[in-house]
Amino acid sequence: MKTHFRILSCLALLLSLLSNSAVAQDASLLQRPVVGAEALTQQNSSFIYKELPPAARPRELQKNDIITVIVDYRTRMLSEGDAENRKTASLLAVLTDWIRFDGKSIQRAPQANGDPSIGGTLNSQYRAESDVELRDTLTFRIGAKIVDIRPNGNLVIEAHWNIRNNEEHWRISLTGVVRRESIQPDRTVTSDSIAELDVVKKEMGQVRDGYSRGWAQKWYDRFKPF
Questions:
Q1: Cα-based distances in Å from 4 to 1, 9, 11, 13
Q2: Using only C-alpha atoms, what is the Rg of the chain?
Q3: pTM higher than 0.70, yes or no?
Q4: Comparing 28-37, 93-102, 178-187, 195-204, which segment has the lowest mean pLDDT?
Q5: Burial letters for 104-123: b for 16+ Cβ neighbours within 10 Å, e otherwise?
Q6: CA distance 181 to 177
Q7: Nearest to 183 by CA among 146, 138, 139, 152
Q8: Which of 13, 18, 122, 178 is the most buried (most CB within 10 A)?
Q9: H/E segment holding residue 84
């Protein structure tokens, strides 16, 4: 009976030692990763992670997709000029030798009343002042369509805005090239990030006719004949 009890005790002690050894091996920092084990990611390690439905996931921009362009164009130019010129000139000329032609040759012709002379004084003054200040502001939002995708991934966009209100007519067109990285997650991009930007704005109607120049005024402003 004592012999069986000793054998069982030895077996229990051996199993206990084997179990402690396995736990220590699992907790070792030097343990090599198990081959084929799945790496930890947000999907398989987070308790609060929830995958978005397909309709809510951001979609890769493709041709004919619509983005919003925020145009904020501001310029300011200030030019000042001041010029002043004064000139005083005195002239005194005396003709000491005079000639005459007798029909065959040129000969000297002394002046009996003395050598002819001319004298004079010229005073001139020029003064000009100029002051030009120009400010331009153009701000609006417009939807643009992706019409082409360059080989390097840049997007070629184009937008047209056409509004009619009775006799008034506003037309705005925009073209340019923009990088994908410049487009925000809500699919908006500012005009500062657009290369080869070309904005054309035209107004037609009664209001425009009230302050537009006629063809004669345009010709005079261009050539300024006097």
A1: 5, 9, 11, 14
A2: 47
A3: no
A4: 28-37
A5: eeeeeeeeeeeeeeeeeeee
A6: 12
A7: 146
A8: 178
A9: strand 66-94
